[in-house]
Structure formats: structure tokens, C-alpha cells
From TrEMBL:
Positions of transmembrane segments: 52-75, 81-102, 133-156, 162-186, 198-222, 327-347
Coiled-coil region(s): none
Region (Disordered): 1-24
Alphabetically ordered keywords of this record: Membrane, Transmembrane, Transmembrane helix
Keyword Membrane attached: yes
Domain of life: Bacteria
Name recorded for this polypeptide: ABC transporter permease
Length: 364
């Protein structure tokens, strides 16, 4: 009896060749993301501490808003500062709360022995990571939603436009999502929940406080002595007996090239938020905190002036308006990139089988 070998196409059910790598484990599905997000949110909603935290947040933001509004009313100040100050306070409070919402999402489940149950299902690592990120972000947005009544009230006092108000809220929400993504990445990298929480707070401090310190410390590194144009009283005029008159002359001066290090301020969440809420074209000396921060940051980005002003004899120069290009798109893009890196690290660390595990790590 003659037999024939019939070649089969790769992937045919009767093909004895070993199948190729399974790409489904790396895919992401809306159903899987939704399942993880719903499970995470249900656990938070059932927790009594979650409700207490929302109530304390509401009371704290309300108290600060009332105190700020009352202080400006009592002192006869400009109430347009209220919105900027309240929004900055909400951002600062959010940067304190957001790390706790995602920095223990993965290693906490691993220590409890529940993460392995999810990993042996059809859920992909991307489903688990994105679902946990969306749950943490939704929890952060709940705190922001609680603050909206006070933000709207302070915005009605002035200091922003309708477009500026909505843009500020959207950017604030994205910044909270970035912090949650960074915390999720550290949660996947470290075995202990305390370690991931500390690392997340260090990352937040690096973006907010340490970036300002580094900018100040790097100033001597970008300072050089150059020959520049100066508008003032020259040394020859001061040595003579003639009347002091301001004039333009060339002299040696120390010049700080802040245009080389301005990006250290651009990544700061407070600078980003101030730049989104500022109204271009206003005098920063008579406007709110947003315009003041935007003007100072743009001066740093522009670097040293073409002519150094040293004429103290003349009257004060006329006010200048700040009409430079916005900074917040660059800073927000850098923060979103950091959040994307954190999410990518979490997805990679959730893949099974594990190659190495830290000592004492519980799998199931």
C-alpha cells in the first residue's frame, strides 16, 4: 500500500509542528481591563476608610476655600487670586493622596496571594496592569470631583476663563493619572508595599520640590562672564563730576544661561498647572498666581536679556505682558512619558512564568 505525505499549512489543526509563540498573552482587551477595574473599585467602595477619606477631603478643601475667600474679602484684596490658590492646594493634596491609590496595587495582591489567581486566567498582563491603573485613577478622580463645588465657586470670583477652567481641570486629572501610573510601576518592581509607596513619594518630590532645588543648584554651572550691553551709568561717568545719566555701553558681566536648565521647571506639576490656567496678555504684577508663575518661567526659558537693565535712576519701566508660547504641553508630555514608562514596567513584571523572584515573595 502506497502512502503519501500531504504537507499542511502552518497553523493547521492537524499540523504536528509546534505552534508559534502565543501572542494572546500580550494582547489587551476591554473586557479584561473592565473586569480588573470593577474588582478593584468594588473593594474600595466597600471600605469604610474610603468614605472617611472622601469626607475628610471635602471638609479640608472646603475649609481652605472659605478661609482664602474670607481673607481676601476682609483684607480688601483681589478675589481673582482665590481660584489659583485653591487649585494649587487641590493639586498639592492630590499629589499626597494619589501615590497611596496605586503604589500597592500589585505587590499588595502578590503578598496576599491573589495576584497569581488572576495571572493563571485568560487575562493578559496588560489587562491586569491597565485595569489596576484605571481603578486607581478613577479613585483619584473621585477626590477631584468632590473638590469641584469649591473650584467652581472660586472660579466665579474671577481669575480664569471658562476655557482656562476646563483646561486646568483636565490637566490636573492627567497629572493625577501620571502619579498613579508611576506608583503602579514601583508596585510591580518592589516586593514590599512600604518600599513602593516610599519610591512613589520620592518620584513626586523629585518632580515638585527637588526639581526646583536642582534648578537653583545648577545656576553656577551655567553662569559665565561675558561682554554684554548694559543700560545704566558707566564707571567713567561715575568717576567724573558730571551728572549721572543712563546710557547704553558694553561691559563685563556675569550671565546666567537659564535657557539651558529651564526644563527642570517645565516638568514641575505646579508650573504646568499654572501655565494652563494663566491668561496671556495680562500684567503679571496685577494678576493672579498663575500669571506670576507663568511670567517667571518664561523669563527663565528666554535666558538672559539682550540688554542688562542697571538704570536705577529712571522711573520704573512700563509693565510688560507675557505673550510667549505656552510651556504646559512640553511639561505635560514629559510627565505622561514617565507615566507610560511606569505602566510598561508593570506590564513587563506581570508576565509569567517569572524568571526570578525576590526572596520571601509569596506567589499563591
Amino acid at each position: 500500500m502506497t502512502t503519501f505525505d500531504v504537507p499542511l499549512e502552518p497553523g493547521h489543526p492537524l499540523d504536528p509542528a509546534p505552534p508559534g509563540p502565543d501572542t494572546s498573552a500580550r494582547a489587551i482587551s476591554w473586557q479584561g481591563v473592565r473586569t480588573i477595574a470593577v474588582l478593584e473599585l468594588r473593594q474600595r467602595i466597600r471600605s469604610t476608610r474610603w468614605r472617611v477619606a472622601l469626607a475628610v477631603w471635602f471638609a479640608l478643601v472646603g475649609l481652605v476655600s472659605i478661609l482664602i475667600g474670607g481673607a481676601f474679602a476682609a483684607l480688601g484684596g483681589d478675589p481673582t487670586w482665590s481660584f489659583g490658590l485653591v487649585l494649587m492646594f487641590v493639586l498639592g493634596l492630590g499629589l499626597v493622596v494619589a501615590p497611596t491609590l496605586a503604589s500597592t496595587a500589585i505587590n499588595g495582591d502578590r503578598n496576599a496571594g491573589t495576584l497569581a489567581i488572576l495571572q493563571v486566567t485568560l487575562l493578559s498582563p496588560a489587562d491586569i496592569a491597565v485595569g489596576k491603573l484605571l481603578a486607581g485613577w478613577a479613585a483619584a478622580l473621585a477626590f477631584l470631583a468632590v473638590s469641584l463645588p469649591f473650584l467652581i465657586w472660586s472660579a466665579l470670583l474671577g481669575g480664569t476663563t471658562v476655557a482656562g477652567f476646563f483646561l486646568s481641570i483636565v490637566v490636573l486629572a492627567l497629572l493625577l493619572g501620571v502619579v498613579c501610573a508611576i506608583g503602579l510601576g514601583f508596585s510591580a518592581l518592589t516586593a514590599r508595599t512600604a518600599g513602593s509607596s516610599v519610591l512613589t513619594y520620592v518620584a513626586v518630590a523629585s518632580l515638585t520640590v527637588i526639581s526646583l532645588i536642582l534648578f537653583a543648584l545648577t545656576a553656577p554651572l551655567v553662569t559665565t562672564t561675558e561682554e554684554v550691553e548694559v543700560y545704566g551709568v558707566s564707571e567713567e561717568a561715575m568717576a567724573g563730576d558730571q551728572t549721572y545719566e543712563c546710557e547704553t555701553f558694553t561691559a563685563q558681566r556675569e550671565v546666567t544661561h537659564t535657557e539651558r536648565t529651564w526644563w527642570l521647571l517645565a516638568i514641575n506639576p505646579f508650573v504646568i498647572l499654572a501655565d494652563t490656567g494663566a491668561q496671556p496678555g495680562l500684567d503679571p504684577r496685577d494678576s493672579g498666581p498663575f500669571e506670576a508663575i507663568r511670567s517667571a518661567t518664561n523669563q527663565v526659558r528666554s535666558g538672559p536679556p539682550d540688554v542688562h537693565q542697571e538704570c536705577w535712576l529712571d522711573s520704573a519701566p512700563p509693565p510688560t505682558v507675557d505673550d510667549a508660547a505656552p510651556i504646559w504641553p512640553w511639561g505635560l508630555a514629559a510627565n505622561l512619558l514617565l507615566g507610560a514608562v511606569g505602566l510598561a514596567v508593570a506590564i513587563r513584571r506581570l508576565r509569567v512564568p517569572y524568571r526570578t523572584l525576590p526572596g520571601g515573595t509569596r506567589v499563591a
